[in-house]
Amino acid sequence: MDAFRIFIVEDDVFYGEMLRHHLALNPDNEVHLYKTGEECLKNLYRSPAMVSLDYSLPDMSGLDVMRQIKKEHPEIPVIIVSGQEDISTAVTLLREGAYDYFVKDDDVKDRLWNVLKKIRENVQLRSEISYLKEEIGRKYEFRNVIKGNSPSIKQIFGLIEKSIKTNISVSITGETGTGKELVAKAIHYNSKRAKKPFVAINVSAVPRDLIESEMFGHEKGAFTGAVTRKIGKFEQANGGTIFLDEIAEMDLNMQAKLLRVIQERELTRVGGNDLINIDARLIVATNRNLADEVQKGNFREDLYYRLLGLPIELPPLRYRGNDIILLAKYFVDEFCKENKMKKLSITESAQQKLMGYHFPGNVRELRAIIELAAVLTDLDHIDESHISFNSADAAGNLLMEESSLAEYTQKIIRYYLQKYNNNVLLVAKKLEIGKSTIYRMIKENQI
Amino acid sequence: MTKSDKDHYCLDKLICFVGDDPEAIKNMVNLFLSTTPDLLQAINASLRDNIAEDLAKAAHTLKPTLDIFGVENTYELIRNIEQKAKKAELDDAMSEQIKQLNTLMELVFQELKSAYQAV
Protein backbone atom coordinates (compact mmCIF):
# COMPACT_ATOMS: atom_id res chain seq x y z
CA MET A 1 0.00 0.00 0.00
CA ASP A 2 1.23 3.54 -0.73
CA ALA A 3 2.20 5.81 2.17
CA PHE A 4 -0.77 7.50 3.81
CA ARG A 5 0.05 11.17 3.25
CA ILE A 6 -1.17 13.54 5.94
CA PHE A 7 -0.93 17.35 5.91
CA ILE A 8 -0.89 19.16 9.24
CA VAL A 9 -1.55 22.88 8.92
CA GLU A 10 -0.69 24.48 12.24
CA ASP A 11 0.92 27.84 13.02
CA ASP A 12 1.67 26.89 16.61
CA VAL A 13 5.14 25.43 16.08
CA PHE A 14 5.10 23.34 19.20
CA TYR A 15 1.60 21.87 18.73
CA GLY A 16 2.19 21.23 15.05
CA GLU A 17 5.47 19.44 15.73
CA MET A 18 3.86 17.39 18.44
CA LEU A 19 1.04 16.27 16.09
CA ARG A 20 3.60 15.53 13.39
CA HIS A 21 5.67 13.40 15.75
CA HIS A 22 2.57 11.64 17.06
CA LEU A 23 1.14 10.75 13.65
CA ALA A 24 4.55 9.69 12.35
CA LEU A 25 4.68 7.01 15.06
CA ASN A 26 2.84 4.89 12.52
CA PRO A 27 5.45 4.19 9.82
CA ASP A 28 2.70 3.96 7.18
CA ASN A 29 2.00 7.68 7.65
CA GLU A 30 3.93 10.29 5.67
CA VAL A 31 3.35 13.51 7.60
CA HIS A 32 3.93 17.02 6.23
CA LEU A 33 3.74 20.07 8.49
CA TYR A 34 2.80 23.51 7.10
CA LYS A 35 2.56 26.73 9.06
CA THR A 36 0.27 28.68 6.74
CA GLY A 37 -2.82 28.05 4.66
CA GLU A 38 -1.02 29.17 1.53
CA GLU A 39 1.79 26.64 2.04
CA CYS A 40 -0.82 23.89 2.35
CA LEU A 41 -2.69 24.97 -0.78
CA LYS A 42 0.54 25.16 -2.78
CA ASN A 43 1.30 21.53 -1.89
CA LEU A 44 -2.10 20.04 -2.62
CA TYR A 45 -0.67 18.56 -5.82
CA ARG A 46 0.90 15.91 -3.54
CA SER A 47 -2.64 14.54 -3.05
CA PRO A 48 -2.82 14.12 0.72
CA ALA A 49 -5.13 11.41 2.03
CA MET A 50 -6.15 13.74 4.84
CA VAL A 51 -5.62 17.34 6.01
CA SER A 52 -5.59 18.34 9.67
CA LEU A 53 -6.24 22.05 9.71
CA ASP A 54 -5.94 24.61 12.51
CA TYR A 55 -8.87 27.01 12.46
CA SER A 56 -6.83 30.11 13.28
CA LEU A 57 -3.98 30.56 10.82
CA PRO A 58 -1.87 33.68 10.37
CA ASP A 59 -2.60 34.26 6.66
CA MET A 60 -6.17 33.04 6.21
CA SER A 61 -8.93 31.40 8.22
CA GLY A 62 -9.22 27.63 8.40
CA LEU A 63 -12.64 27.96 6.77
CA ASP A 64 -11.17 29.68 3.71
CA VAL A 65 -8.39 27.10 3.40
CA MET A 66 -10.94 24.30 3.66
CA ARG A 67 -13.19 25.89 1.03
CA GLN A 68 -10.23 26.11 -1.34
CA ILE A 69 -9.27 22.48 -0.68
CA LYS A 70 -12.87 21.33 -1.21
CA LYS A 71 -13.11 23.35 -4.42
CA GLU A 72 -10.03 21.74 -5.95
CA HIS A 73 -10.10 18.31 -4.27
CA PRO A 74 -13.55 17.58 -2.83
CA GLU A 75 -12.50 14.01 -2.03
CA ILE A 76 -9.82 15.01 0.53
CA PRO A 77 -11.15 14.75 4.10
CA VAL A 78 -10.38 17.88 6.12
CA ILE A 79 -10.31 17.71 9.91
CA ILE A 80 -10.36 20.92 11.86
CA VAL A 81 -8.23 20.83 15.01
CA SER A 82 -8.80 24.07 16.83
CA GLY A 83 -8.59 25.84 20.15
CA GLN A 84 -12.01 27.33 19.35
CA GLU A 85 -14.59 25.91 21.71
CA ASP A 86 -17.43 27.80 20.06
CA ILE A 87 -20.15 25.40 18.90
CA SER A 88 -21.41 27.66 16.11
CA THR A 89 -17.91 27.66 14.55
CA ALA A 90 -17.87 23.87 14.62
CA VAL A 91 -21.36 23.65 13.09
CA THR A 92 -20.43 26.08 10.30
CA LEU A 93 -17.29 24.11 9.45
CA LEU A 94 -19.08 20.77 9.46
CA ARG A 95 -21.80 22.19 7.23
CA GLU A 96 -19.17 23.48 4.85
CA GLY A 97 -17.80 19.96 4.47
CA ALA A 98 -15.30 19.38 7.31
CA TYR A 99 -14.92 15.65 7.96
CA ASP A 100 -14.69 16.27 11.72
CA TYR A 101 -13.99 19.01 14.23
CA PHE A 102 -11.77 18.59 17.29
CA VAL A 103 -11.05 21.00 20.09
CA LYS A 104 -7.42 20.87 21.23
CA ASP A 105 -8.06 19.02 24.45
CA ASP A 106 -7.26 15.72 26.12
CA ASP A 107 -9.24 13.68 23.59
CA VAL A 108 -7.46 14.93 20.46
CA LYS A 109 -5.06 12.01 20.31
CA ASP A 110 -7.68 9.27 20.47
CA ARG A 111 -10.12 11.09 18.20
CA LEU A 112 -7.38 11.68 15.67
CA TRP A 113 -6.48 7.99 15.56
CA ASN A 114 -10.13 6.99 15.30
CA VAL A 115 -10.75 9.34 12.44
CA LEU A 116 -7.54 8.24 10.71
CA LYS A 117 -8.65 4.63 11.01
CA LYS A 118 -12.00 5.48 9.39
CA ILE A 119 -10.37 7.47 6.60
CA ARG A 120 -7.89 4.67 5.92
CA GLU A 121 -10.76 2.21 5.68
CA ASN A 122 -12.59 4.55 3.31
CA VAL A 123 -9.50 4.95 1.14
CA GLN A 124 -9.07 1.20 1.02
CA LEU A 125 -12.74 0.65 0.19
CA ARG A 126 -12.59 3.29 -2.55
CA SER A 127 -9.58 1.64 -4.10
CA GLU A 128 -11.26 -1.77 -3.87
CA ILE A 129 -14.42 -0.40 -5.51
CA SER A 130 -12.37 1.16 -8.28
CA TYR A 131 -10.54 -2.16 -8.82
CA LEU A 132 -13.80 -4.11 -8.85
CA LYS A 133 -15.35 -1.67 -11.31
CA GLU A 134 -12.42 -2.24 -13.64
CA GLU A 135 -12.80 -5.99 -13.14
CA ILE A 136 -16.49 -5.82 -14.01
CA GLY A 137 -15.63 -3.77 -17.06
CA ARG A 138 -13.17 -6.47 -18.16
CA LYS A 139 -15.68 -9.20 -17.35
CA TYR A 140 -18.30 -7.54 -19.52
CA GLU A 141 -15.98 -6.67 -22.37
CA PHE A 142 -18.49 -7.71 -24.99
CA ARG A 143 -16.31 -10.24 -26.77
CA ASN A 144 -15.81 -11.94 -23.39
CA VAL A 145 -19.54 -12.00 -22.81
CA ILE A 146 -20.91 -13.07 -26.15
CA LYS A 147 -19.10 -15.95 -27.77
CA GLY A 148 -19.63 -16.99 -31.33
CA ASN A 149 -18.44 -16.88 -34.93
CA SER A 150 -21.74 -17.33 -36.73
CA PRO A 151 -22.76 -14.55 -39.12
CA SER A 152 -25.84 -13.79 -37.02
CA ILE A 153 -23.78 -13.22 -33.86
CA LYS A 154 -21.13 -11.20 -35.74
CA GLN A 155 -23.92 -8.89 -36.78
CA ILE A 156 -24.81 -8.48 -33.09
CA PHE A 157 -21.20 -7.49 -32.31
CA GLY A 158 -21.47 -4.75 -34.91
CA LEU A 159 -24.67 -3.42 -33.37
CA ILE A 160 -23.22 -3.46 -29.84
CA GLU A 161 -20.18 -1.54 -31.03
CA LYS A 162 -22.48 1.08 -32.51
CA SER A 163 -24.57 1.28 -29.37
CA ILE A 164 -21.64 1.92 -27.01
CA LYS A 165 -20.56 5.05 -28.86
CA THR A 166 -23.76 6.99 -28.11
CA ASN A 167 -26.52 7.21 -25.54
CA ILE A 168 -29.18 5.88 -27.88
CA SER A 169 -31.86 3.71 -26.26
CA VAL A 170 -31.48 0.05 -27.11
CA SER A 171 -34.25 -2.52 -27.41
CA ILE A 172 -33.13 -6.12 -27.19
CA THR A 173 -35.38 -8.93 -28.29
CA GLY A 174 -34.80 -12.65 -28.28
CA GLU A 175 -36.09 -15.90 -26.89
CA THR A 176 -35.56 -16.77 -23.28
CA GLY A 177 -31.96 -17.73 -22.52
CA THR A 178 -30.42 -15.90 -25.49
CA GLY A 179 -28.48 -13.50 -23.22
CA LYS A 180 -30.47 -10.26 -23.32
CA GLU A 181 -29.29 -9.04 -19.93
CA LEU A 182 -25.67 -9.95 -20.74
CA VAL A 183 -25.87 -7.83 -23.89
CA ALA A 184 -27.35 -4.95 -21.86
CA LYS A 185 -24.47 -5.21 -19.36
CA ALA A 186 -21.92 -5.43 -22.15
CA ILE A 187 -23.30 -2.21 -23.64
CA HIS A 188 -23.24 -0.44 -20.28
CA TYR A 189 -19.79 -1.58 -19.15
CA ASN A 190 -18.22 -0.68 -22.47
CA SER A 191 -19.89 2.73 -22.71
CA LYS A 192 -18.87 6.07 -21.20
CA ARG A 193 -21.33 5.37 -18.39
CA ALA A 194 -19.38 2.29 -17.23
CA LYS A 195 -18.34 3.83 -13.90
CA LYS A 196 -21.92 4.70 -12.99
CA PRO A 197 -24.53 2.15 -11.90
CA PHE A 198 -26.16 -0.48 -14.07
CA VAL A 199 -29.59 -1.06 -12.57
CA ALA A 200 -31.82 -3.87 -13.82
CA ILE A 201 -35.49 -4.39 -13.14
CA ASN A 202 -37.58 -7.31 -14.32
CA VAL A 203 -40.93 -5.71 -14.99
CA SER A 204 -42.86 -8.98 -14.88
CA ALA A 205 -41.38 -10.00 -11.53
CA VAL A 206 -42.72 -6.94 -9.71
CA PRO A 207 -46.39 -6.96 -8.70
CA ARG A 208 -48.41 -4.39 -10.64
CA ASP A 209 -49.24 -2.35 -7.51
CA LEU A 210 -45.57 -1.94 -6.64
CA ILE A 211 -44.02 -1.32 -10.04
CA GLU A 212 -44.37 2.49 -9.96
CA SER A 213 -42.78 2.75 -6.53
CA GLU A 214 -40.06 0.28 -7.57
CA MET A 215 -39.20 2.31 -10.65
CA PHE A 216 -39.71 5.87 -9.44
CA GLY A 217 -39.46 5.51 -5.65
CA HIS A 218 -41.86 6.80 -3.04
CA GLU A 219 -42.00 9.30 -0.22
CA LYS A 220 -42.52 8.30 3.40
CA GLY A 221 -46.25 7.80 4.05
CA ALA A 222 -47.14 7.67 0.33
CA PHE A 223 -49.17 4.52 0.99
CA THR A 224 -49.72 1.96 3.73
CA GLY A 225 -46.37 0.35 4.39
CA ALA A 226 -44.28 3.23 3.01
CA VAL A 227 -42.56 3.80 6.34
CA THR A 228 -39.48 5.44 4.85
CA ARG A 229 -38.58 7.24 1.65
CA LYS A 230 -37.50 4.84 -1.10
CA ILE A 231 -35.26 5.78 -3.98
CA GLY A 232 -36.49 4.18 -7.19
CA LYS A 233 -34.47 2.30 -9.79
CA PHE A 234 -34.43 5.26 -12.17
CA GLU A 235 -32.82 7.47 -9.53
CA GLN A 236 -30.38 4.73 -8.57
CA ALA A 237 -29.33 4.52 -12.19
CA ASN A 238 -28.67 8.25 -12.48
CA GLY A 239 -25.63 8.82 -14.68
CA GLY A 240 -25.65 5.13 -15.62
CA THR A 241 -27.98 2.72 -17.34
CA ILE A 242 -31.39 1.32 -16.46
CA PHE A 243 -32.32 -2.02 -17.93
CA LEU A 244 -36.04 -2.82 -18.10
CA ASP A 245 -36.38 -6.53 -18.74
CA GLU A 246 -39.67 -8.02 -19.96
CA ILE A 247 -40.92 -4.55 -20.89
CA ALA A 248 -43.84 -6.02 -22.84
CA GLU A 249 -45.40 -7.14 -19.57
CA MET A 250 -45.85 -3.57 -18.35
CA ASP A 251 -49.48 -2.53 -18.04
CA LEU A 252 -50.84 0.37 -20.09
CA ASN A 253 -51.23 2.71 -17.12
CA MET A 254 -47.58 2.28 -16.16
CA GLN A 255 -46.54 2.61 -19.80
CA ALA A 256 -48.08 6.12 -19.83
CA LYS A 257 -46.08 7.08 -16.73
CA LEU A 258 -42.87 5.65 -18.17
CA LEU A 259 -43.40 7.55 -21.41
CA ARG A 260 -43.73 10.81 -19.49
CA VAL A 261 -40.50 10.17 -17.55
CA ILE A 262 -38.61 9.34 -20.74
CA GLN A 263 -39.92 12.41 -22.55
CA GLU A 264 -39.46 14.91 -19.73
CA ARG A 265 -36.32 13.30 -18.27
CA GLU A 266 -37.71 13.94 -14.83
CA LEU A 267 -39.86 12.05 -12.37
CA THR A 268 -41.82 12.51 -9.19
CA ARG A 269 -41.62 9.88 -6.47
CA VAL A 270 -44.97 8.30 -5.54
CA GLY A 271 -46.59 10.59 -2.97
CA GLY A 272 -44.09 13.37 -3.63
CA ASN A 273 -44.22 16.73 -5.36
CA ASP A 274 -40.59 17.43 -6.18
CA LEU A 275 -39.43 16.94 -9.75
CA ILE A 276 -36.21 14.94 -9.93
CA ASN A 277 -34.04 15.17 -13.02
CA ILE A 278 -33.05 11.84 -14.49
CA ASP A 279 -30.05 11.05 -16.64
CA ALA A 280 -30.16 7.30 -17.21
CA ARG A 281 -29.60 5.48 -20.44
CA LEU A 282 -32.47 3.17 -21.23
CA ILE A 283 -32.09 -0.41 -22.42
CA VAL A 284 -35.20 -2.56 -22.67
CA ALA A 285 -35.63 -6.23 -23.44
CA THR A 286 -38.45 -8.59 -24.21
CA ASN A 287 -38.96 -12.05 -25.63
CA ARG A 288 -42.14 -10.88 -27.37
CA ASN A 289 -42.51 -9.00 -30.61
CA LEU A 290 -43.27 -5.49 -29.42
CA ALA A 291 -44.62 -4.40 -32.80
CA ASP A 292 -47.19 -7.21 -32.58
CA GLU A 293 -48.08 -6.12 -29.07
CA VAL A 294 -48.70 -2.60 -30.41
CA GLN A 295 -50.97 -4.05 -33.10
CA LYS A 296 -52.90 -5.99 -30.48
CA GLY A 297 -53.31 -2.83 -28.38
CA ASN A 298 -51.22 -4.22 -25.52
CA PHE A 299 -48.39 -1.75 -25.92
CA ARG A 300 -48.53 2.02 -26.51
CA GLU A 301 -47.33 2.98 -29.96
CA ASP A 302 -45.75 6.25 -28.78
CA LEU A 303 -43.78 4.41 -26.10
CA TYR A 304 -42.79 1.73 -28.61
CA TYR A 305 -41.13 4.32 -30.85
CA ARG A 306 -39.48 6.01 -27.86
CA LEU A 307 -37.99 2.71 -26.69
CA LEU A 308 -37.14 1.19 -30.03
CA GLY A 309 -33.91 3.18 -30.45
CA LEU A 310 -31.35 0.73 -31.74
CA PRO A 311 -33.05 -2.68 -32.02
CA ILE A 312 -30.89 -5.73 -31.35
CA GLU A 313 -32.51 -9.07 -32.06
CA LEU A 314 -30.60 -11.95 -30.51
CA PRO A 315 -30.77 -15.11 -32.61
CA PRO A 316 -31.97 -18.37 -31.04
CA LEU A 317 -29.11 -20.80 -30.42
CA ARG A 318 -30.53 -23.35 -32.90
CA TYR A 319 -29.89 -20.85 -35.72
CA ARG A 320 -26.29 -20.25 -34.72
CA GLY A 321 -24.77 -23.38 -36.23
CA ASN A 322 -21.29 -24.16 -34.92
CA ASP A 323 -21.62 -21.59 -32.13
CA ILE A 324 -23.32 -24.42 -30.22
CA ILE A 325 -20.05 -26.36 -30.12
CA LEU A 326 -17.93 -23.27 -29.52
CA LEU A 327 -20.14 -22.33 -26.55
CA ALA A 328 -20.26 -25.91 -25.27
CA LYS A 329 -16.43 -26.02 -25.21
CA TYR A 330 -16.29 -22.62 -23.53
CA PHE A 331 -18.79 -23.66 -20.83
CA VAL A 332 -17.02 -26.93 -20.10
CA ASP A 333 -13.66 -25.14 -19.81
CA GLU A 334 -15.15 -22.52 -17.48
CA PHE A 335 -16.84 -25.18 -15.37
CA CYS A 336 -13.65 -27.21 -15.02
CA LYS A 337 -11.67 -24.08 -14.13
CA GLU A 338 -14.18 -22.94 -11.52
CA ASN A 339 -14.36 -26.38 -9.95
CA LYS A 340 -10.64 -27.11 -10.21
CA MET A 341 -11.28 -30.16 -12.41
CA LYS A 342 -9.09 -31.57 -15.15
CA LYS A 343 -9.86 -30.23 -18.59
CA LEU A 344 -12.60 -32.21 -20.40
CA SER A 345 -13.04 -32.66 -24.12
CA ILE A 346 -16.34 -33.20 -25.94
CA THR A 347 -16.43 -36.21 -28.25
CA GLU A 348 -17.59 -36.03 -31.85
CA SER A 349 -20.75 -38.04 -31.06
CA ALA A 350 -21.61 -35.72 -28.17
CA GLN A 351 -21.12 -32.74 -30.48
CA GLN A 352 -23.44 -34.30 -33.06
CA LYS A 353 -26.06 -34.90 -30.38
CA LEU A 354 -25.85 -31.25 -29.33
CA MET A 355 -26.08 -30.03 -32.92
CA GLY A 356 -29.27 -32.03 -33.43
CA TYR A 357 -31.12 -30.49 -30.49
CA HIS A 358 -33.40 -27.44 -30.80
CA PHE A 359 -32.51 -25.79 -27.45
CA PRO A 360 -35.79 -24.14 -26.44
CA GLY A 361 -33.93 -22.65 -23.46
CA ASN A 362 -31.11 -21.42 -25.73
CA VAL A 363 -27.65 -20.63 -24.29
CA ARG A 364 -28.87 -20.92 -20.71
CA GLU A 365 -30.08 -24.45 -21.40
CA LEU A 366 -26.87 -25.41 -23.21
CA ARG A 367 -24.85 -24.28 -20.22
CA ALA A 368 -26.96 -26.37 -17.83
CA ILE A 369 -26.67 -29.44 -20.09
CA ILE A 370 -22.90 -29.09 -20.33
CA GLU A 371 -22.39 -28.52 -16.62
CA LEU A 372 -24.45 -31.60 -15.82
CA ALA A 373 -22.48 -33.63 -18.35
CA ALA A 374 -19.20 -32.47 -16.78
CA VAL A 375 -20.41 -33.67 -13.41
CA LEU A 376 -21.69 -37.01 -14.73
CA THR A 377 -18.59 -38.07 -16.61
CA ASP A 378 -15.88 -40.07 -14.86
CA LEU A 379 -13.67 -39.91 -17.97
CA ASP A 380 -11.48 -37.20 -19.42
CA HIS A 381 -14.20 -36.39 -21.94
CA ILE A 382 -17.91 -35.88 -22.34
CA ASP A 383 -19.62 -38.31 -24.71
CA GLU A 384 -23.19 -38.57 -25.91
CA SER A 385 -24.27 -40.66 -22.93
CA HIS A 386 -23.53 -37.72 -20.64
CA ILE A 387 -25.65 -35.33 -22.66
CA SER A 388 -29.25 -35.46 -21.58
CA PHE A 389 -32.14 -33.35 -22.82
CA ASN A 390 -34.32 -34.50 -20.05
CA SER A 391 -37.63 -32.73 -20.47
CA ALA A 392 -39.46 -36.04 -21.19
CA ASP A 393 -37.57 -37.85 -18.44
CA ALA A 394 -38.44 -35.07 -16.04
CA ALA A 395 -42.15 -35.57 -16.69
CA GLY A 396 -41.78 -39.28 -16.02
CA ASN A 397 -39.85 -38.69 -12.83
CA LEU A 398 -42.40 -36.17 -11.72
CA LEU A 399 -45.27 -38.70 -11.86
CA MET A 400 -43.18 -41.36 -10.12
CA GLU A 401 -43.19 -39.20 -7.02
CA GLU A 402 -46.93 -39.74 -6.42
CA SER A 403 -47.52 -36.27 -4.97
CA SER A 404 -50.85 -34.55 -4.33
CA LEU A 405 -52.46 -32.46 -7.07
CA ALA A 406 -51.65 -29.26 -5.14
CA GLU A 407 -47.98 -30.28 -4.90
CA TYR A 408 -47.89 -31.08 -8.63
CA THR A 409 -49.42 -27.67 -9.33
CA GLN A 410 -46.71 -25.95 -7.28
CA LYS A 411 -43.96 -27.93 -9.02
CA ILE A 412 -45.32 -27.13 -12.47
CA ILE A 413 -45.61 -23.42 -11.74
CA ARG A 414 -42.14 -23.37 -10.16
CA TYR A 415 -40.74 -25.12 -13.22
CA TYR A 416 -42.36 -22.63 -15.60
CA LEU A 417 -41.25 -19.64 -13.53
CA GLN A 418 -37.66 -20.87 -13.67
CA LYS A 419 -37.93 -21.59 -17.36
CA TYR A 420 -39.38 -18.20 -18.19
CA ASN A 421 -37.15 -16.16 -15.92
CA ASN A 422 -39.88 -15.45 -13.35
CA ASN A 423 -42.09 -13.88 -15.98
CA VAL A 424 -45.39 -14.30 -14.14
CA LEU A 425 -47.56 -12.96 -16.94
CA LEU A 426 -45.96 -15.24 -19.50
CA VAL A 427 -46.24 -18.27 -17.23
CA ALA A 428 -49.90 -17.47 -16.52
CA LYS A 429 -50.51 -17.28 -20.25
CA LYS A 430 -48.66 -20.52 -20.99
CA LEU A 431 -50.53 -22.43 -18.28
CA GLU A 432 -53.82 -20.69 -19.05
CA ILE A 433 -54.37 -19.66 -15.45
CA GLY A 434 -54.85 -16.25 -13.83
CA LYS A 435 -51.68 -14.41 -12.87
CA SER A 436 -53.26 -13.61 -9.51
CA THR A 437 -53.20 -17.34 -8.76
CA ILE A 438 -49.43 -17.34 -9.21
CA TYR A 439 -48.98 -14.15 -7.17
CA ARG A 440 -51.13 -15.65 -4.41
CA MET A 441 -49.03 -18.79 -4.33
CA ILE A 442 -45.83 -16.73 -4.21
CA LYS A 443 -47.26 -14.61 -1.40
CA GLU A 444 -48.31 -17.70 0.57
CA ASN A 445 -44.81 -19.15 0.11
CA GLN A 446 -46.19 -22.10 -1.73
CA ILE A 447 -43.67 -21.51 -4.49
CA MET B 1 15.83 13.86 33.33
CA THR B 2 13.96 13.68 36.59
CA LYS B 3 10.84 15.43 37.66
CA SER B 4 10.47 16.58 41.23
CA ASP B 5 7.12 16.41 43.05
CA LYS B 6 7.37 20.13 43.57
CA ASP B 7 7.52 20.87 39.85
CA HIS B 8 4.80 22.97 38.29
CA TYR B 9 4.38 20.89 35.17
CA CYS B 10 3.36 17.35 34.26
CA LEU B 11 4.50 15.57 31.11
CA ASP B 12 1.92 12.76 31.13
CA LYS B 13 -0.04 14.21 28.21
CA LEU B 14 3.11 14.91 26.22
CA ILE B 15 4.28 11.33 26.73
CA CYS B 16 0.87 10.18 25.67
CA PHE B 17 1.35 12.03 22.39
CA VAL B 18 5.01 11.42 21.54
CA GLY B 19 5.46 8.07 23.25
CA ASP B 20 7.85 7.06 25.99
CA ASP B 21 10.93 7.96 23.97
CA PRO B 22 13.39 10.09 26.04
CA GLU B 23 14.97 11.61 22.95
CA ALA B 24 11.59 12.65 21.54
CA ILE B 25 10.50 14.08 24.88
CA LYS B 26 13.73 16.03 25.17
CA ASN B 27 13.25 17.45 21.68
CA MET B 28 9.70 18.50 22.47
CA VAL B 29 10.79 20.11 25.74
CA ASN B 30 13.46 22.05 23.89
CA LEU B 31 10.90 23.12 21.30
CA PHE B 32 8.62 24.27 24.11
CA LEU B 33 11.46 26.23 25.71
CA SER B 34 12.35 27.89 22.44
CA THR B 35 8.83 28.82 21.25
CA THR B 36 6.80 29.54 24.39
CA PRO B 37 8.80 32.56 25.62
CA ASP B 38 7.98 34.32 22.34
CA LEU B 39 4.28 33.74 22.91
CA LEU B 40 4.54 35.07 26.45
CA GLN B 41 6.46 38.01 25.07
CA ALA B 42 3.65 38.63 22.58
CA ILE B 43 1.08 38.55 25.38
CA ASN B 44 3.09 41.05 27.44
CA ALA B 45 3.66 43.35 24.47
CA SER B 46 -0.03 43.32 23.49
CA LEU B 47 -1.04 44.21 27.03
CA ARG B 48 1.53 46.97 27.13
CA ASP B 49 0.41 48.34 23.76
CA ASN B 50 -3.27 47.78 24.57
CA ILE B 51 -3.92 45.58 21.48
CA ALA B 52 -6.62 43.20 22.65
CA GLU B 53 -6.89 41.30 19.38
CA ASP B 54 -3.21 40.32 19.38
CA LEU B 55 -3.39 39.41 23.04
CA ALA B 56 -6.39 37.12 22.43
CA LYS B 57 -4.59 35.47 19.52
CA ALA B 58 -1.38 34.81 21.48
CA ALA B 59 -3.35 33.46 24.45
CA HIS B 60 -5.34 31.25 22.10
CA THR B 61 -2.13 29.79 20.64
CA LEU B 62 -0.54 29.25 24.04
CA LYS B 63 -3.61 27.53 25.51
CA PRO B 64 -3.16 23.98 24.11
CA THR B 65 0.61 24.02 24.73
CA LEU B 66 0.10 24.75 28.43
CA ASP B 67 -2.46 21.98 28.48
CA ILE B 68 -0.02 19.47 26.97
CA PHE B 69 2.71 20.44 29.47
CA GLY B 70 0.22 20.15 32.31
CA VAL B 71 1.26 23.52 33.68
CA GLU B 72 -0.66 23.62 36.93
CA ASN B 73 -3.29 26.26 37.63
CA THR B 74 -3.18 27.56 34.08
CA TYR B 75 -6.25 25.78 32.66
CA GLU B 76 -8.70 28.49 33.80
CA LEU B 77 -6.10 31.26 33.82
CA ILE B 78 -5.22 31.18 30.10
CA ARG B 79 -8.89 30.76 29.13
CA ASN B 80 -9.86 33.81 31.21
CA ILE B 81 -7.09 35.84 29.62
CA GLU B 82 -8.24 34.84 26.11
CA GLN B 83 -11.93 35.53 26.83
CA LYS B 84 -11.28 38.90 28.47
CA ALA B 85 -8.99 39.88 25.59
CA LYS B 86 -11.69 38.94 23.08
CA LYS B 87 -14.00 41.33 24.93
CA ALA B 88 -11.16 43.94 24.97
CA GLU B 89 -11.19 44.01 28.77
CA LEU B 90 -7.54 44.92 29.27
CA ASP B 91 -8.06 46.05 32.85
CA ASP B 92 -6.14 45.70 36.12
CA ALA B 93 -7.50 42.20 36.67
CA MET B 94 -6.09 41.19 33.29
CA SER B 95 -2.67 42.68 34.21
CA GLU B 96 -2.74 40.70 37.40
CA GLN B 97 -3.60 37.45 35.62
CA ILE B 98 -0.84 37.94 33.05
CA LYS B 99 1.63 38.69 35.83
CA GLN B 100 0.58 35.45 37.50
CA LEU B 101 1.07 33.61 34.19
CA ASN B 102 4.56 35.08 33.71
CA THR B 103 5.62 34.05 37.20
CA LEU B 104 4.33 30.54 36.77
CA MET B 105 5.91 30.11 33.36
CA GLU B 106 9.27 31.39 34.60
CA LEU B 107 9.22 28.65 37.23
CA VAL B 108 8.27 26.01 34.66
CA PHE B 109 11.05 27.14 32.29
CA GLN B 110 13.61 26.89 35.07
CA GLU B 111 12.36 23.50 36.21
CA LEU B 112 12.38 22.10 32.67
CA LYS B 113 15.82 23.52 31.90
CA SER B 114 17.16 22.01 35.06
CA ALA B 115 15.52 18.62 34.45
CA TYR B 116 16.40 18.35 30.79
CA GLN B 117 19.69 20.33 30.84
CA ALA B 118 18.45 22.20 27.84
CA VAL B 119 20.48 25.34 28.45
Task: Write a brief structural summary.
Chain A is of the alpha/beta class and 447 residues long. In chain A, 49% of the residues lie in helices and 14% in strands.
What's the arrangement of secondary structure elements?
The complex is a heterodimer of chains A (447) and B (119).
Chain A: E1 4-9, H1 13-23, E2 29-34, H2 37-42, E3 50-54, H3 62-72, E4 78-82, H4 87-95, E5 100-103, H5 108-139, H6 142-145, H7 151-165, E6 170-173, H8 180-189, E7 198-202, H9 208-216, E8 217-218, E9 230-231, H10 233-236, E10 241-245, H11 252-264, E11 266-267, E12 276-277, E13 281-286, H12 290-295, H13 301-308, E14 310-313, H14 323-338, E15 345-346, H15 348-355, H16 362-376, E16 381-382, H17 391-400, H18 405-419, H19 424-431, H20 435-443
Parallel strand pairs in A: 1-2, 1-3, 3-4, 4-5, 6-13, 6-14, 7-10, 10-13, 15-16
Antiparallel strand pairs in A: 8-9, 11-12
Helix pairs in contact in A: 7-8, 14-16, 19-20
Chain B: H1 12-18, H2 22-49, H3 52-68, H4 75-86, H5 92-116
Q: What can you see in these coordinates?
A:
The complex is a heterodimer of chains A (about 450) and B (about 120). Chain A is built from 20 helices and 16 strands. Chain A has helices at about 15-25, 35-40, 60-70, 85-95, 110-140, 140-145, 150-165, 180-190, 210-215, 235, 250-265, 290-295, 300-310, 325-340, 350-355, 360-375, 390-400, 405-420, 425-430, 435-445; strands at about 5-10, 30-35, 50-55, 80, 100-105, 170-175, 200, 215-220, 230, 240-245, 265, 275, 280-285, 310-315, 345, 380. In chain A, helix 1 links the parallel strand 1 and strand 2. The longest helix of chain A is centred in the first third of the chain and has 32 residues, at about 110-140. Chain B is an all-alpha fold and about 120 residues long. Chain B is about 75% helix and about 0% strand. Chain B is built from five helices and no strands. In chain B, helix 2 (about 20-50) runs antiparallel to helix 3 (about 50-70) and helix 3 packs antiparallel against helix 4. The radius of gyration of chain B is 15 Å and the shape is elongated. The model of chain B has no long low-confidence stretch (mean pLDDT about 90). At the A-B interface, helix 1 of A face helix 1, helix 2 and helix 3 of B.
